[in-house]
Specification:
Rossmann fold; Arc Repressor Mutant, subunit A; five-stranded parallel sheet; 416 residues; 3 domains; alpha/beta; Helicase, Ruva Protein, domain 3
Length: 416
Protein backbone atom coordinates (compact mmCIF):
# COMPACT_ATOMS: atom_id res chain seq x y z
CA UNK A 1 0.00 0.00 0.00
CA UNK A 2 0.88 3.64 -0.33
CA UNK A 3 2.98 5.03 2.53
CA UNK A 4 3.44 8.69 3.22
CA UNK A 5 6.54 10.30 1.73
CA UNK A 6 6.40 13.02 4.34
CA UNK A 7 5.35 11.49 7.65
CA UNK A 8 6.93 8.65 9.52
CA UNK A 9 4.90 9.10 12.72
CA UNK A 10 2.08 11.61 12.49
CA UNK A 11 0.95 11.46 16.11
CA UNK A 12 4.20 13.08 17.26
CA UNK A 13 2.77 16.35 15.94
CA UNK A 14 -0.49 15.98 17.87
CA UNK A 15 -1.32 18.55 20.54
CA UNK A 16 -1.42 15.96 23.27
CA UNK A 17 1.90 14.32 22.45
CA UNK A 18 4.60 14.67 25.09
CA UNK A 19 8.14 13.63 24.13
CA UNK A 20 9.98 11.13 26.36
CA UNK A 21 12.66 13.74 26.90
CA UNK A 22 12.28 17.48 26.86
CA UNK A 23 15.10 19.31 25.10
CA UNK A 24 13.82 22.62 26.34
CA UNK A 25 12.79 23.16 30.00
CA UNK A 26 14.74 20.02 30.84
CA UNK A 27 16.52 21.71 33.74
CA UNK A 28 13.25 22.98 35.22
CA UNK A 29 11.80 19.49 34.96
CA UNK A 30 14.88 17.97 36.55
CA UNK A 31 14.66 20.37 39.46
CA UNK A 32 11.08 19.47 40.20
CA UNK A 33 11.58 15.75 39.72
CA UNK A 34 14.69 15.75 41.91
CA UNK A 35 12.88 17.60 44.66
CA UNK A 36 10.17 14.95 44.99
CA UNK A 37 12.36 11.95 44.32
CA UNK A 38 14.76 12.77 47.14
CA UNK A 39 11.98 12.98 49.65
CA UNK A 40 10.33 9.78 48.46
CA UNK A 41 13.63 7.94 48.64
CA UNK A 42 14.26 9.06 52.20
CA UNK A 43 10.95 7.43 53.09
CA UNK A 44 10.04 10.36 55.30
CA UNK A 45 7.06 11.31 53.22
CA UNK A 46 6.36 14.52 51.45
CA UNK A 47 3.52 16.95 51.19
CA UNK A 48 4.81 19.60 48.88
CA UNK A 49 2.91 22.27 46.99
CA UNK A 50 4.70 23.72 43.97
CA UNK A 51 3.48 26.22 41.45
CA UNK A 52 4.10 26.75 37.73
CA UNK A 53 2.83 29.91 36.11
CA UNK A 54 3.45 31.63 32.81
CA UNK A 55 4.04 34.99 31.27
CA UNK A 56 0.93 37.21 31.18
CA UNK A 57 -1.25 36.66 28.11
CA UNK A 58 0.91 33.88 26.67
CA UNK A 59 -0.29 30.39 25.89
CA UNK A 60 1.42 27.38 24.40
CA UNK A 61 4.57 28.06 26.42
CA UNK A 62 4.82 24.64 28.01
CA UNK A 63 3.09 24.97 31.39
CA UNK A 64 0.91 21.90 31.00
CA UNK A 65 3.63 20.00 29.18
CA UNK A 66 6.14 20.61 31.95
CA UNK A 67 3.70 19.58 34.67
CA UNK A 68 2.66 16.37 32.93
CA UNK A 69 6.25 15.59 32.05
CA UNK A 70 7.22 15.89 35.73
CA UNK A 71 4.43 13.46 36.61
CA UNK A 72 5.49 10.97 33.94
CA UNK A 73 9.20 11.27 34.74
CA UNK A 74 8.52 10.67 38.41
CA UNK A 75 6.60 7.53 37.50
CA UNK A 76 9.63 6.30 35.52
CA UNK A 77 12.19 7.26 38.14
CA UNK A 78 10.32 5.95 41.17
CA UNK A 79 9.93 2.57 39.46
CA UNK A 80 13.71 2.28 39.36
CA UNK A 81 13.84 2.64 43.13
CA UNK A 82 10.87 0.40 43.81
CA UNK A 83 8.78 3.31 45.13
CA UNK A 84 5.03 3.23 44.48
CA UNK A 85 4.08 6.46 42.81
CA UNK A 86 1.35 7.75 40.57
CA UNK A 87 0.49 11.14 39.18
CA UNK A 88 -3.03 12.41 38.80
CA UNK A 89 -3.81 15.13 36.26
CA UNK A 90 -6.88 17.32 36.52
CA UNK A 91 -7.80 20.29 34.41
CA UNK A 92 -9.80 22.23 36.95
CA UNK A 93 -11.46 24.35 34.30
CA UNK A 94 -13.47 21.30 33.32
CA UNK A 95 -13.92 20.20 36.94
CA UNK A 96 -14.86 23.36 38.78
CA UNK A 97 -16.16 21.80 41.99
CA UNK A 98 -14.57 19.92 44.87
CA UNK A 99 -16.68 16.86 44.25
CA UNK A 100 -15.66 16.71 40.62
CA UNK A 101 -12.01 16.99 41.61
CA UNK A 102 -12.32 14.27 44.23
CA UNK A 103 -14.15 12.03 41.78
CA UNK A 104 -11.32 12.42 39.29
CA UNK A 105 -8.64 11.75 41.91
CA UNK A 106 -10.45 8.61 43.07
CA UNK A 107 -11.01 7.30 39.56
CA UNK A 108 -7.44 7.94 38.43
CA UNK A 109 -6.25 6.08 41.53
CA UNK A 110 -8.71 3.32 40.72
CA UNK A 111 -10.16 3.77 44.16
CA UNK A 112 -13.74 2.65 44.20
CA UNK A 113 -15.64 5.01 46.48
CA UNK A 114 -18.81 6.95 46.03
CA UNK A 115 -17.94 10.61 46.15
CA UNK A 116 -21.44 11.86 45.50
CA UNK A 117 -23.32 12.37 48.70
CA UNK A 118 -20.21 11.96 50.87
CA UNK A 119 -18.66 14.80 52.82
CA UNK A 120 -15.40 16.12 51.42
CA UNK A 121 -13.52 15.12 54.56
CA UNK A 122 -14.81 11.54 54.37
CA UNK A 123 -13.62 11.20 50.80
CA UNK A 124 -10.23 12.63 51.70
CA UNK A 125 -9.96 10.20 54.60
CA UNK A 126 -10.69 7.32 52.24
CA UNK A 127 -8.00 8.58 49.87
CA UNK A 128 -5.31 9.00 52.55
CA UNK A 129 -6.18 5.62 53.97
CA UNK A 130 -5.89 4.02 50.55
CA UNK A 131 -2.46 5.59 50.02
CA UNK A 132 -1.32 4.40 53.46
CA UNK A 133 -2.47 0.84 52.80
CA UNK A 134 -0.69 0.70 49.46
CA UNK A 135 2.30 2.78 50.51
CA UNK A 136 1.53 4.88 47.44
CA UNK A 137 2.82 8.41 46.88
CA UNK A 138 0.93 10.70 44.55
CA UNK A 139 1.40 14.01 42.79
CA UNK A 140 -1.87 15.75 42.04
CA UNK A 141 -1.53 18.22 39.17
CA UNK A 142 -4.23 20.88 39.23
CA UNK A 143 -4.04 22.65 35.88
CA UNK A 144 -5.74 25.99 35.22
CA UNK A 145 -5.83 26.39 38.97
CA UNK A 146 -6.93 30.03 38.63
CA UNK A 147 -10.35 28.85 37.49
CA UNK A 148 -10.83 27.08 40.84
CA UNK A 149 -9.83 30.20 42.69
CA UNK A 150 -12.28 32.25 40.67
CA UNK A 151 -15.08 29.76 41.09
CA UNK A 152 -17.74 30.64 43.63
CA UNK A 153 -18.67 26.94 43.67
CA UNK A 154 -15.56 25.98 45.57
CA UNK A 155 -15.30 27.15 49.11
CA UNK A 156 -12.11 28.15 50.82
CA UNK A 157 -12.45 25.60 53.62
CA UNK A 158 -12.56 22.79 51.13
CA UNK A 159 -9.57 24.14 49.26
CA UNK A 160 -7.66 24.21 52.56
CA UNK A 161 -8.81 20.76 53.39
CA UNK A 162 -7.59 19.41 50.08
CA UNK A 163 -4.28 21.25 49.89
CA UNK A 164 -3.35 20.89 53.57
CA UNK A 165 -4.94 17.53 53.96
CA UNK A 166 -2.51 16.11 56.53
CA UNK A 167 -3.14 18.89 59.01
CA UNK A 168 -6.71 17.74 59.29
CA UNK A 169 -6.19 14.05 58.68
CA UNK A 170 -2.78 12.98 60.01
CA UNK A 171 -1.31 9.96 58.23
CA UNK A 172 -1.57 6.75 60.24
CA UNK A 173 2.17 6.11 60.04
CA UNK A 174 3.15 9.78 60.02
CA UNK A 175 4.22 9.57 56.37
CA UNK A 176 2.56 12.12 54.13
CA UNK A 177 2.02 10.92 50.61
CA UNK A 178 0.02 13.57 48.74
CA UNK A 179 1.82 16.31 46.84
CA UNK A 180 0.44 19.04 44.62
CA UNK A 181 1.66 20.75 41.52
CA UNK A 182 -0.49 23.77 40.73
CA UNK A 183 -0.46 25.27 37.26
CA UNK A 184 -1.76 28.81 36.79
CA UNK A 185 -1.97 31.16 33.83
CA UNK A 186 0.19 33.98 35.13
CA UNK A 187 1.44 35.83 38.24
CA UNK A 188 -2.09 36.87 39.21
CA UNK A 189 -2.56 33.35 40.48
CA UNK A 190 -0.38 34.35 43.43
CA UNK A 191 -2.55 37.30 44.43
CA UNK A 192 -5.70 35.23 43.99
CA UNK A 193 -4.21 32.64 46.33
CA UNK A 194 -3.16 35.30 48.82
CA UNK A 195 -6.73 36.55 48.83
CA UNK A 196 -8.51 33.22 49.11
CA UNK A 197 -6.12 30.78 50.69
CA UNK A 198 -3.22 32.76 52.19
CA UNK A 199 -1.93 29.94 54.38
CA UNK A 200 -1.56 27.73 51.31
CA UNK A 201 0.13 30.48 49.33
CA UNK A 202 2.73 30.95 52.06
CA UNK A 203 3.52 27.24 51.94
CA UNK A 204 4.33 27.02 48.25
CA UNK A 205 7.66 25.26 48.19
CA UNK A 206 8.79 26.01 44.68
CA UNK A 207 7.60 28.58 42.17
CA UNK A 208 8.48 28.35 38.54
CA UNK A 209 7.82 31.20 36.15
CA UNK A 210 7.83 30.29 32.46
CA UNK A 211 8.70 32.83 29.79
CA UNK A 212 7.53 32.59 26.18
CA UNK A 213 9.91 30.52 24.07
CA UNK A 214 12.78 32.17 22.21
CA UNK A 215 13.65 31.38 18.58
CA UNK A 216 16.37 29.04 19.68
CA UNK A 217 14.10 27.17 22.07
CA UNK A 218 11.37 26.81 19.46
CA UNK A 219 13.93 25.59 16.98
CA UNK A 220 15.05 22.86 19.37
CA UNK A 221 11.45 21.84 20.06
CA UNK A 222 10.64 21.72 16.33
CA UNK A 223 13.78 19.80 15.48
CA UNK A 224 12.96 17.09 17.99
CA UNK A 225 9.46 16.72 16.54
CA UNK A 226 10.67 16.80 12.94
CA UNK A 227 13.23 14.06 13.62
CA UNK A 228 10.54 11.81 15.03
CA UNK A 229 7.51 12.73 12.96
CA UNK A 230 8.90 13.29 9.48
CA UNK A 231 10.91 11.34 6.94
CA UNK A 232 14.53 12.57 6.93
CA UNK A 233 14.42 13.87 3.36
CA UNK A 234 11.10 15.66 3.89
CA UNK A 235 12.41 18.57 5.96
CA UNK A 236 15.44 20.77 6.43
CA UNK A 237 16.76 23.19 9.04
CA UNK A 238 15.86 26.27 7.07
CA UNK A 239 12.15 25.42 7.15
CA UNK A 240 12.23 25.00 10.92
CA UNK A 241 14.12 28.28 11.29
CA UNK A 242 11.39 30.07 9.34
CA UNK A 243 8.79 28.89 11.83
CA UNK A 244 10.99 29.51 14.88
CA UNK A 245 11.80 33.05 13.67
CA UNK A 246 8.16 33.81 13.14
CA UNK A 247 6.95 32.74 16.59
CA UNK A 248 10.12 33.17 18.67
CA UNK A 249 9.92 35.69 21.49
CA UNK A 250 12.50 38.30 22.37
CA UNK A 251 12.35 41.32 24.65
CA UNK A 252 12.62 43.84 21.82
CA UNK A 253 10.38 42.57 19.08
CA UNK A 254 8.00 40.56 21.25
CA UNK A 255 6.51 37.51 19.54
CA UNK A 256 4.12 34.85 20.71
CA UNK A 257 6.72 32.38 21.91
CA UNK A 258 4.20 29.59 21.49
CA UNK A 259 5.39 26.03 20.98
CA UNK A 260 1.81 25.05 20.26
CA UNK A 261 1.60 27.34 17.24
CA UNK A 262 5.07 26.44 16.03
CA UNK A 263 4.29 22.72 16.12
CA UNK A 264 0.88 23.22 14.51
CA UNK A 265 2.49 25.19 11.71
CA UNK A 266 5.01 22.45 11.07
CA UNK A 267 2.20 19.91 10.96
CA UNK A 268 0.15 22.03 8.61
CA UNK A 269 3.12 22.58 6.28
CA UNK A 270 3.77 18.83 6.23
CA UNK A 271 0.13 18.11 5.48
CA UNK A 272 0.12 20.67 2.67
CA UNK A 273 3.21 19.07 1.15
CA UNK A 274 1.52 15.70 1.37
CA UNK A 275 -1.75 16.85 -0.18
CA UNK A 276 0.11 18.49 -3.03
CA UNK A 277 1.99 15.26 -3.68
CA UNK A 278 5.40 16.83 -3.01
CA UNK A 279 8.23 14.57 -1.88
CA UNK A 280 9.39 17.10 0.70
CA UNK A 281 8.12 20.22 2.48
CA UNK A 282 8.85 23.38 0.51
CA UNK A 283 9.21 26.94 1.68
CA UNK A 284 5.87 27.82 0.09
CA UNK A 285 4.13 25.21 2.25
CA UNK A 286 5.57 26.79 5.37
CA UNK A 287 4.56 30.27 4.22
CA UNK A 288 1.05 29.10 3.52
CA UNK A 289 0.84 27.34 6.89
CA UNK A 290 2.09 30.46 8.66
CA UNK A 291 -0.51 32.63 6.98
CA UNK A 292 -3.29 30.12 7.68
CA UNK A 293 -2.31 30.04 11.31
CA UNK A 294 -2.30 33.81 11.37
CA UNK A 295 -5.88 33.76 10.12
CA UNK A 296 -6.83 31.23 12.75
CA UNK A 297 -5.30 33.29 15.47
CA UNK A 298 -7.19 35.48 17.86
CA UNK A 299 -8.06 39.06 16.85
CA UNK A 300 -6.71 40.50 20.08
CA UNK A 301 -7.11 44.15 19.11
CA UNK A 302 -10.79 43.64 18.35
CA UNK A 303 -11.26 41.86 21.65
CA UNK A 304 -9.58 44.63 23.63
CA UNK A 305 -11.98 47.12 22.04
CA UNK A 306 -15.04 45.26 23.36
CA UNK A 307 -16.85 46.25 26.53
CA UNK A 308 -17.06 43.85 29.43
CA UNK A 309 -20.52 42.53 28.56
CA UNK A 310 -19.60 41.90 24.95
CA UNK A 311 -16.65 39.92 26.27
CA UNK A 312 -18.90 37.97 28.63
CA UNK A 313 -21.26 37.12 25.77
CA UNK A 314 -18.33 36.00 23.64
CA UNK A 315 -17.02 33.92 26.53
CA UNK A 316 -20.45 32.28 26.84
CA UNK A 317 -20.42 31.36 23.15
CA UNK A 318 -16.87 30.01 23.36
CA UNK A 319 -17.80 27.93 26.41
CA UNK A 320 -20.80 26.42 24.64
CA UNK A 321 -18.59 25.52 21.70
CA UNK A 322 -16.11 23.88 24.05
CA UNK A 323 -18.94 21.95 25.65
CA UNK A 324 -19.72 20.51 22.24
CA UNK A 325 -22.63 22.79 21.38
CA UNK A 326 -21.39 24.97 18.58
CA UNK A 327 -24.74 26.26 17.34
CA UNK A 328 -26.96 27.81 19.99
CA UNK A 329 -30.18 29.79 20.07
CA UNK A 330 -30.39 33.29 21.49
CA UNK A 331 -32.40 31.89 24.40
CA UNK A 332 -29.71 29.36 25.26
CA UNK A 333 -27.05 32.01 24.91
CA UNK A 334 -28.91 34.35 27.23
CA UNK A 335 -29.08 31.67 29.94
CA UNK A 336 -25.41 30.98 29.59
CA UNK A 337 -24.55 34.67 29.59
CA UNK A 338 -26.57 35.24 32.78
CA UNK A 339 -24.61 32.46 34.42
CA UNK A 340 -21.23 33.72 33.22
CA UNK A 341 -22.01 37.33 34.16
CA UNK A 342 -22.99 36.24 37.64
CA UNK A 343 -19.79 34.24 37.91
CA UNK A 344 -17.81 37.40 37.25
CA UNK A 345 -19.95 39.42 39.64
CA UNK A 346 -21.62 41.49 36.90
CA UNK A 347 -25.34 42.04 36.58
CA UNK A 348 -26.52 40.83 33.17
CA UNK A 349 -27.72 43.50 30.72
CA UNK A 350 -31.35 43.60 29.55
CA UNK A 351 -32.84 42.19 26.38
CA UNK A 352 -32.34 45.20 24.10
CA UNK A 353 -28.76 45.84 25.09
CA UNK A 354 -27.98 42.13 24.77
CA UNK A 355 -29.14 42.16 21.15
CA UNK A 356 -27.16 45.30 20.36
CA UNK A 357 -24.03 43.58 21.67
CA UNK A 358 -24.77 40.45 19.67
CA UNK A 359 -25.11 42.45 16.47
CA UNK A 360 -21.86 44.21 17.19
CA UNK A 361 -20.02 40.93 17.69
CA UNK A 362 -21.52 39.76 14.40
CA UNK A 363 -20.44 42.93 12.59
CA UNK A 364 -16.87 42.41 13.79
CA UNK A 365 -16.91 38.92 12.30
CA UNK A 366 -16.35 37.25 15.66
CA UNK A 367 -19.62 35.35 15.51
CA UNK A 368 -22.08 34.26 12.83
CA UNK A 369 -25.77 34.96 13.30
CA UNK A 370 -28.29 33.16 11.21
CA UNK A 371 -32.05 32.83 11.35
CA UNK A 372 -33.17 29.37 12.44
CA UNK A 373 -34.72 27.18 9.79
CA UNK A 374 -37.66 24.90 10.30
CA UNK A 375 -37.76 22.59 13.25
CA UNK A 376 -37.24 25.15 15.96
CA UNK A 377 -40.37 26.66 17.43
CA UNK A 378 -40.96 30.28 16.57
CA UNK A 379 -38.38 32.54 15.06
CA UNK A 380 -35.00 32.68 16.65
CA UNK A 381 -31.45 33.32 15.67
CA UNK A 382 -28.78 30.69 15.75
CA UNK A 383 -25.38 31.77 16.87
CA UNK A 384 -21.97 30.28 16.46
CA UNK A 385 -18.37 31.30 16.80
CA UNK A 386 -16.75 32.21 13.48
CA UNK A 387 -15.24 29.01 12.14
CA UNK A 388 -11.68 30.31 11.88
CA UNK A 389 -11.54 31.20 15.56
CA UNK A 390 -10.36 28.41 17.88
CA UNK A 391 -12.72 28.40 20.87
CA UNK A 392 -10.14 27.36 23.46
CA UNK A 393 -7.69 30.12 22.53
CA UNK A 394 -10.51 32.62 22.42
CA UNK A 395 -11.66 31.65 25.88
CA UNK A 396 -8.15 32.09 27.27
CA UNK A 397 -7.73 35.46 25.57
CA UNK A 398 -11.11 36.78 26.71
CA UNK A 399 -10.62 35.62 30.29
CA UNK A 400 -7.25 37.21 30.36
CA UNK A 401 -8.64 40.56 29.14
CA UNK A 402 -11.44 40.41 31.70
CA UNK A 403 -8.92 39.75 34.45
CA UNK A 404 -6.73 42.59 33.17
CA UNK A 405 -9.59 44.96 33.78
CA UNK A 406 -9.97 43.70 37.32
CA UNK A 407 -9.92 46.26 40.04
CA UNK A 408 -8.64 44.36 43.03
CA UNK A 409 -10.23 45.09 46.36
CA UNK A 410 -13.83 44.85 45.24
CA UNK A 411 -13.98 41.47 46.82
CA UNK A 412 -13.70 37.95 45.62
CA UNK A 413 -15.57 36.82 42.54
CA UNK A 414 -15.85 40.36 41.30
CA UNK A 415 -12.88 41.09 39.19
CA UNK A 416 -14.03 43.90 36.98
P1 LIG B 1 0.57 25.95 27.92
O1 LIG B 1 0.15 25.00 29.00
O2 LIG B 1 1.61 26.93 28.39
O3 LIG B 1 -0.56 26.61 27.20
P2 LIG B 1 1.39 23.54 26.57
O4 LIG B 1 2.21 22.91 27.64
O5 LIG B 1 0.01 23.03 26.37
O6 LIG B 1 1.34 25.10 26.79
O7 LIG B 1 2.23 23.41 25.22
C1 LIG B 1 1.66 23.57 23.95
C2 LIG B 1 2.22 22.58 22.96
O8 LIG B 1 3.63 22.75 22.80
C3 LIG B 1 2.03 21.14 23.36
O9 LIG B 1 1.62 20.42 22.22
C4 LIG B 1 3.39 20.67 23.81
O10 LIG B 1 3.60 19.33 23.51
C5 LIG B 1 4.36 21.57 23.09
N1 LIG B 1 5.49 21.93 23.96
C6 LIG B 1 5.49 22.92 24.87
N2 LIG B 1 6.67 22.99 25.51
C7 LIG B 1 7.43 22.00 25.00
C8 LIG B 1 8.78 21.57 25.25
N3 LIG B 1 9.56 22.16 26.17
N4 LIG B 1 9.24 20.52 24.54
C9 LIG B 1 8.46 19.92 23.62
N5 LIG B 1 7.20 20.28 23.33
C10 LIG B 1 6.68 21.32 23.99
Amino acid sequence: MYGSQIFRDRKVLDESYIPDHLRVRASEAELLVGRYLNRFREGLGSTDISLIYGSLGKVGIGKTTLAKYVGLSLERETRRYGINFKHVYINTYSAPSMHQILTLIASQLELNISVRGSAVIEVLKAITDYLYRRDLYILVILDEFQSLLLSPRVDDDHLYLLLRIYEEIPAKDGINRINFLLVGQDFRIVSHMKERIPQVESQIGFRLYLKPYSKKELYDILEQRAEMALEPHAWNEYLLEMIADYYGYDEVKGGEGSARKAILTLRMAAELAEVKGASSIQEEHVRLALSENAVASIPLDDLRGLNTHELLILLSIASSTLEGKSLITTGELRDKYNEVAEFYGESPRGHTQFHVYLRNLGALGLIDLKPSGKGIKGRTTLIRLSPEIPADRLREAVESIILDRATPGRGRGSWM
